[in-house]
Write a structure and sequence with these properties.
With 390 residues, the chain is an alpha+beta fold. The chain folds into three domains: 105 residues, Gcn5-related N-acetyltransferase (GNAT) (Aminopeptidase); 144 residues, Gcn5-related N-acetyltransferase (GNAT) (Aminopeptidase, 3-Layer(aba) Sandwich), CATH 3.40.630; 87 residues, SCP2 sterol-binding domain (Nonspecific Lipid-transfer Protein, Chain A), CATH 3.30.1050. It is 29% helix and 34% strand. The chain has a twelve-stranded mixed sheet. The chain has a five-stranded mixed sheet with strand order 15-14-13-16-17. Helix 1 crosses helix 2. It is globular and about 60 Å long. It starts with a strand and ends in a 12-residue tail after the last helix. The mean pLDDT is 96.
Length: 390
């Protein structure tokens, strides 16, 4: 078998829908075919082909993410679909190997994905690098006072919501820069509220939600589809509005980082984890990733490092990492004090794992205590969190 990869064509949408249905447990109906036809038309779908037959495919897009208050270009890989009759033949591995090269050549700093299986991606250099976490709040027990939010009223409020999200995203680690399509889906939420800011045309917080009823249950769950708060009053307003549903709304489900922020306002531990998963990251164009990322403004210094990356020679180095005034630069070096396995790059870059943890796990292969301590400070920040599944 000789596999090659190429973008899928319009006439291959039905086959893509069938592969996706077999892989993810849905039905290959006309709606699914149209969904894949649109993705193919936008150039998002790459297939693995043997002798003219498409054996598997995946969806690939380029999206910026916030790291250290700055935007880093990343590759999203999703919907990796190989039907059962073609599994175990290296189809998914061939797709991933091609995308690693394509992403590096395109100048994308990282590759991100939500894994259905970890083993495959670890073999190819991805590693867990952050979390997507859902929580459940017992709304009947929560009592939080705060400013009163009002319902969204027109496009001006939506523009302020987008700006509020960006202010929050800049202050986090790994939040996505959202496109118009995602925001259009957010606007479909049945209920949308804002807390106006002190400056006209701004909001300090927003919350978008729906009500979800279980069969035969007259009470409902408040399904928070999106929220953000940039001030203490804003956070109290969001949690207070949700808690005010407590007479009939028995609980609320929302996403946040680890640990969540809502618990800070509650007298009792009324928030509990309610499902989540780790996402994975892999290094691609490392000089671009470092140049685009923000670093702690009070930190300066250098470290030399190399990466054992058999799939991407361009990432291997050795490199000199220089950090000053909140910015970083990665340039070729003569040798390296720190040696990383390819799997260590993603969790180090996002701050999900410290160099000491990576060393204990055997994926940071060499480095002095001084160098590891400096790298710990360089990549420190809020816990890396995604709230948008892709």
């Amino acid at each position: 078998m000789t596999l090659s990869t190429r973008p899928l064509e319009a006439g291959e949408a039905a086959g893509a829908a069938r592969r996706a249905a077999l892989s993810f447990g849905s039905q290959p109906d006309e709606e699914l075919v149209e969904q894949w036809r649109a993705r193919i038309a936008s150039g998002q779908v790459i297939g693995a082909v043997d002798d003219g037959e498409v054996l598997g495919h995946c969806r690939v897009t380029a999206v910026d993410h916030w790291f250290g208050g700055r935007r880093v270009p990343t590759q999203h890989i999703a919907s990796v679909a190989v039907p059962p009759e073609h599994r175990g033949r290296g189809v998914a591995s061939a797709l991933m190997r091609a995308l690693i090269i394509d992403g590096q050549r395109a100048g994308l700093g990282l590759s991100l994905l939500f894994p259905a299986t970890t083993r495959l991606y670890r073999k190819l250099g991805w590693e867990h690098a952050g979390a997507l976490q859902s929580y459940r709040l017992d709304a009947r027990r929560a009592t939080v006072g705060g400013p009163v939010m009002r319902a969204v009223d027109g496009d001006g409020d939506w523009a302020a919501i987008l700006a509020c999200y960006e202010r929050c995203a800049r202050a986090t680690t790994a939040a996505a820069v959202r496109d118009d399509e995602l925001w259009q889906r957010r606007r479909e939420a049945p209920y949308a509220y804002v807390l106006p800011g002190a400056t006209a045309g701004t909001v300090d917080a927003y919350v978008l939600f729906a009500h979800a009823h279980a069969p035969g249950d007259w009470q409902y769950t408040i399904q928070v589809e999106d929220w953000a708060a940039t001030t203490a009053d804003g956070l109290r307003a969001v949690v207070g509005l949700v808690a005010a549903h407590g007479t009939v709304g028995k609980d609320a489900r929302f996403r946040d980082g680890v640990p969540d922020r809502w618990s800070l306002l509650l007298g009792e531990p009324d928030v509990r984890p309610d499902g989540g998963m780790f996402w994975m990251a892999r290094g691609l164009d490392l000089p671009t990733a470092i140049a685009c990322r923000g670093f702690p403004p009070g930190l300066s210094g250098t470290a030399t490092l190399a990466v054992d990356d058999p799939l991407l020679d361009a990432a291997s180095g050795p490199w000199r990492l220089e950090v000053a005034a909140g910015e970083g630069r990665l340039t070729p070096a003569a040798d390296a004090e720190v040696m990383l396995d390819a799997r260590a790059v993603g969790p180090l870059f996002t701050g999900f794992r410290s160099p000491a943890e990576l060393a204990v796990a055997g994926v940071l292969l060499r480095g002095s205590q001084e160098a590891l301590a400096w790298l710990t400070g360089a990549f420190a920040g809020p816990p890396p969190t995604l709230v948008d599944f892709f």
